[in-house]
Amino acid sequence: AITLPLAAHQCRLLAQLENLQPTVKNLAERLRYEVSVRGKQLGWSEKVARFHYKKNLRRIMTELYVRDNCHPFKATLLVWVQVPMWVCVSLALRNCSVGATGSEVQEQFSAGGALWFTDLTAPDSTWILPVSLGLVNLLIVEV
Which residues form a coiled coil (predicted)? Predict the structure, then answer.
């Protein structure tokens, strides 16, 4: 419920960033020309001209990010939500399976399955669940 809207938001941000690339390229070329002309007028060295070019390009990029509200760091929000969720779910599953020392929990796991996996304490001999989980994760990554 939380990660799907964040994934959609991340895709929108990445599309906006991709759409900015031609504008950035044109502005960078124009800035390179302006800095080289100004550098020749003022007698700047190559190092000073490069410094002014990078400084002004960063300023222009920041202005574009603010204008379009698509800073690249916002695209990492999904990772900052998914990693803690993955850790919590992994720890919860580990505690349910390994940390359960009571016989009541073991009995529920051995009798609480469904379909072809009736015993949750036994390994999946058909490999259906691990393979399907891997394929679903691959699909999520590729989409």
Answer: none
Q: Are residues 99 and 137 in the same domain?
A: yes
The residue range of the domain holding 20 is 3-70
pLDDT tens digits along 85-95? 889 888 887 77
Beta bridge pairs of residue 117: 114
Read off the pLDDT band of 99 (50, 70, 90): low
Contact 27, 98 (CB under 8 A): no
Residue finishing a domain among 70, 86, 105: 70
